[in-house]
């Protein structure tokens, strides 16, 4: 068992620590306000069946799933067996989520992305560069899942219709939107003295402006996706959420809600970016 030395968590198994960081990332994403089309502390965005309380409960229900994902990754190399073991734990995690939320899909994409990144982090151990973690996560995602769902998911429907990579493709490519879009915006904003909330909102806008989010495509088609990308890009071009202000974010939220747009995939990838950011900060602090 690997133990980490950070004082707050002295003696906590690394699997539990990784799970805690992933749950924290999910909670921080949910609490970040104001987000367009998504559940936050002010509204439920384009989701009539969700609330901030539900999102936080869903995140907490995933602690044991994430810890188990890390545990199996200590025991298996990045390969087909691990891919299938993670999928098995992931499906049980999806059931835990649905039990905690009364059947509402709050975090399916996040279980997928964070699960793979936890696996990469567990395999490489503390202090590993996050780029290597994301690459290993991608290599695991590229193994086929023999026991995949026997039905056509929302993501599969729009992937087939629009030819976009979706959540699976994003992972298989090593999370390019997290590594090359969200994290650089987050880090540059911090370097420029932009407050943390706005730095994170800008990272989210960067994701929305670039990602082919199957959650948006399934709800609003290509028209909805283009509208979402343009809206996010306009705020970034105006200097980001700190310059354009929270009212411009709230205006975008109203526009998203009126078109039933929810950037759920971008929200998941923001949580993935926050998770990797924490690992990065911890690894540089102890070097
Ligand atoms: C491989 C899987 C990810 C399955 O993916 P698939 O492509 O088949 O699609 P979905 O089942 O639809 O789920 C994918 C979710 O991923 C998020 N997402 C969307 N686009 C992207 C993207 N480009 N990059 C990354 N992530 C993306 C998104 O999740 C968020 O939205 C969810 C709500 O979406 P939806 O269900 O469409 O909800 P509504 O619009 O509200 O639907 P209705 O109410 O109208 O029905 C929310 O949960 C966010 O998380 C996509 O939804 C993978 O899940 C899989 O194979 N799992 C099986 C087990 C496994 O391997 N587990 C993990 C092991 S590590
Ligand atoms: N904050 C959020 N609102 C709606 N769907 C989400 N999926 C992941 N995070 C979300």
Structure, described:
By secondary structure, the chain is mostly helical. The protein has one domain: Triphosphoribosyl-dephospho-CoA protein, CATH 1.10.4200. The chain is 71% helix and 0% strand. The chain is built from 14 helices and no strands. The protein has helices at 14-31, 52-61, 63-75, 80-101, 108-124, 130-141, 154-162, 166-172, 176-191, 196-210, 214-237, 240-244, 246-258, 264-285. α1 (14-31) crosses α14, α2 (52-61) packs across α4 and α11 runs antiparallel to α13. The chain starts with 13 loop residues before the first helix and ends with a helix. The relative contact order is 0.15. Ligand LTSJ6FE6 binds at residues 86-87, 90-91, 105-112, 115-116, 145, 148, 153-156, 159, 166-168, 170, 211-215, 218-219, 262, 264-265, 268-269.
Structural topology:
Layout: H1 14-31, H2 52-61, H3 63-75, H4 80-101, H5 108-124, H6 130-141, H7 154-162, H8 166-172, H9 176-191, H10 196-210, H11 214-237, H12 240-244, H13 246-258, H14 264-285
The structure holds ligand LTSJ6FE6 and adenine.
Ligand LTSJ6FE6 binds next to α4, α5, α7, α8 and α11.
EC number: 2.4.2.52
GO molecular function, one term: glycosyltransferase activity
Protein name: triphosphoribosyl-dephospho-CoA synthase
Keywords:
287 residues; mainly alpha; Triphosphoribosyl-dephospho-CoA protein; 14 helices; disordered N terminus; binds ligand LTSJ6FE6; binds adenine
């Amino acid at each position: 068992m690997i133990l980490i030395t950070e004082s707050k968590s002295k003696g906590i198994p690394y699997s539990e620590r990784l799970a805690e960081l992933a749950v924290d990332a999910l909670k921080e994403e949910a609490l970040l306000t104001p987000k367009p089309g998504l559940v936050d502390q002010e509204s439920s965005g384009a989701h009539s069946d969700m609330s901030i309380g539900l999102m936080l409960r869903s995140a907490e229900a995933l602690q044991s799933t994430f810890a188990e994902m890390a545990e199996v990754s200590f025991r298996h190399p990045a390969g087909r067996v691990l891919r299938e073991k993670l999928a098995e734990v992931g499906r049980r995690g999806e059931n835990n989520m649905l039990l905690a939320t009364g059947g509402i899909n709050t975090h399916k994409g996040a279980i997928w992305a964070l699960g793979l990144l936890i696996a990469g982090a567990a395999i490489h151990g503390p202090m590993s560069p996050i780029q290597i973690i994301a690459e290993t996560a991608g290599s695991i995602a590229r193994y086929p899942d023999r026991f995949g769902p026997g039905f056509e998911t929302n993501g599969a429907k729009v992937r087939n219709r629009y030819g976009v990579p979706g959540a699976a493709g994003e992972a298989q490519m090593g999370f390019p939107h997290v590594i090359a879009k969200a994290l650089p915006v987050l880090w540059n904003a911090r370097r420029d003295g932009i407050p943390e909330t706005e730095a994170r909102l800008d990272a989210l806008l960067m994701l929305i402006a670039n990602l082919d989010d199957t959650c948006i495509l399934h709800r609003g088609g290509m028209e909805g996706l283009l509208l979402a990308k343009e809206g996010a890009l306009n705020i970034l071009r105006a200097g980001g959420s700190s310059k354009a202000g929270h009212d411009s974010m709230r205006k975008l939220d109203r526009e998203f809600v009126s078109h039933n747009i929810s950037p759920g995939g971008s929200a998941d990838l923001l949580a993935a970016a926050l998770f990797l950011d924490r690992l990065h900060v911890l690894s540089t602090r102890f070097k």
